[in-house]
From TrEMBL:
<dbReference type="InterPro" id="IPR015590">
    <property type="entry name" value="Aldehyde_DH_dom"/>
</dbReference>
<dbReference type="GO" id="GO:0004029">
    <property type="term" value="F:aldehyde dehydrogenase (NAD+) activity"/>
</dbReference>
<feature type="domain" description="Aldehyde dehydrogenase">
    <location>
        <begin position="14"/>
        <end position="477"/>
    </location>
</feature>
<feature type="active site">
    <location>
        <position position="252"/>
    </location>
</feature>
<comment type="similarity">
    <text>Belongs to the aldehyde dehydrogenase family.</text>
</comment>
<dbReference type="InterPro" id="IPR016163">
    <property type="entry name" value="Ald_DH_C"/>
</dbReference>
<dbReference type="InterPro" id="IPR029510">
    <property type="entry name" value="Ald_DH_CS_GLU"/>
</dbReference>
<protein>
    <recommendedName>
        <fullName>aldehyde dehydrogenase (NAD(+))</fullName>
        <ecNumber>1.2.1.3</ecNumber>
    </recommendedName>
</protein>
<dbReference type="InterPro" id="IPR016160">
    <property type="entry name" value="Ald_DH_CS_CYS"/>
</dbReference>
<dbReference type="InterPro" id="IPR016162">
    <property type="entry name" value="Ald_DH_N"/>
</dbReference>
<keyword id="KW-0560">Oxidoreductase</keyword>
<dbReference type="Pfam" id="PF00171">
    <property type="entry name" value="Aldedh"/>
</dbReference>
<dbReference type="InterPro" id="IPR016161">
    <property type="entry name" value="Ald_DH/histidinol_DH"/>
</dbReference>
Amino acid sequence: MTLDRDALFIGGTWARPATDAVLEVVSPHSEEVVARVPEGSTADIDLAVAAARRAFDEGPWPRMSPAERIDVVQNLSGLYAAKLEEMATIISTEMGSPISFSSLAQAPAPWMQIEAFLGIAREFPWEERRAGVLGADVVVRHEPVGVVAAIPPWNVPQFTILSKVVPALLAGCTVVVKPAPETPLDAYLLAELLVEAGVPEGVVSIVAGGREVGEHLVRHPGVDKVAFTGSTAAGRRIGAICGEQLKRVSLELGGKSAAIILDDADEAAAIEGLKFLGVMNSGQACVAQTRVLVSQERHDAFAAALASAIGAMKVGDPLDPATEIGPMVAQRQQERVASYIRIGQEEGAQLLTGGEGRPEGLDQGWYVRPTVFAGVDNKMRIAQEEIFGPVLSVIPYVDVADAVRIANDSEYGLAGTVWTADQEAGLEVARGVRTGTYGVNTYTMDFAAPFGGFKASGLGREFGPEGLAQYTEAKSVYLSAPAM
């Protein structure tokens, strides 16, 4: 099976690109080209937005009933379910996610989103009649926001595409997706499923490209809303552009989440949880619990046990089911993570496991050694800046109030956890930490509940009714009072 493509998905059909430019998709494991696809240009974006604009202004999709749109998305759900294994393999091939993670989350979680949004859409108050305070009723409608620019990152590409495309479609919007240049392959498999599901022409376009193409899409006057997932730096730029144009925007950005280990926590359970939550997707996850806060009394013993567990994780070929940590997505990311490991040592943190250099036995691929630092001061760069790799910092705290203070001492506020034998005590800690999502002895995303961040971790929410509402505009229709 070839993964190459020779066309772009514009307006719901496969179209010749405007230029001969090509994106080479490189395996992070072998460093070999695994596919070639057209590189979208600004001219291609113009065509895609024009198609989306026509489909929204003149086409049937926004004018269908919610029930009719639900039927089409239900078709997509069935088709997607049949492609989970293929989707997981493609994502692991193009970005290096361990197949164990791709099979658990990269492919199934997007399908779960579809199913969750379908249930939410069936109960959503698309139009409701309220009793007004002036003697007449008011009809409140939730109408589609318009043409949506959806810009996902490379780390969880399908997860972040569908978190935008599915609620946008259910709301009656049209969408232009700009996948990351590292991960276009899964997006084009999705395009095939959209056609087969019966999404009308013009409603969805998918044009992979780089930053210039992405910024052109954000600035395009034909776009009504931008939905972006990625770095906080890029989010600030997108937010500024949208602010100039008073364009609707939602931003799911970076994180530097803290896991607080209370003294009564089960050490083995907390470490087993952090083996996943700290370095999930090889550490390339915005919600990764990369700051581990432990009391001064337990710090040394807990840090040593955590380092032993992280250091024993299998690093290697992402398509090997036994692999727990794969390569970084690109050489630049490998070099970035290595630079932070040097910074941590220079700042005086104690290196317990990992460090610079390749993992043993891996002579190719963009790998780094999973690393644990102990005795970290929260002011250090390794504790404040998002590294986006398998690097954990163990930070001592004096008491629970100090732990909450340290957790909040960050520009980010996306996720976090607390580990304790007392769930009520954990809930009290959760109330004090300023993040958009939190877990007591666990962390997950429930698609019935809103996901998003405080502070520099973003604007707006995904999932739940709140996530669907991000793709609507509320309209009030005032009715005349009945004649006396």
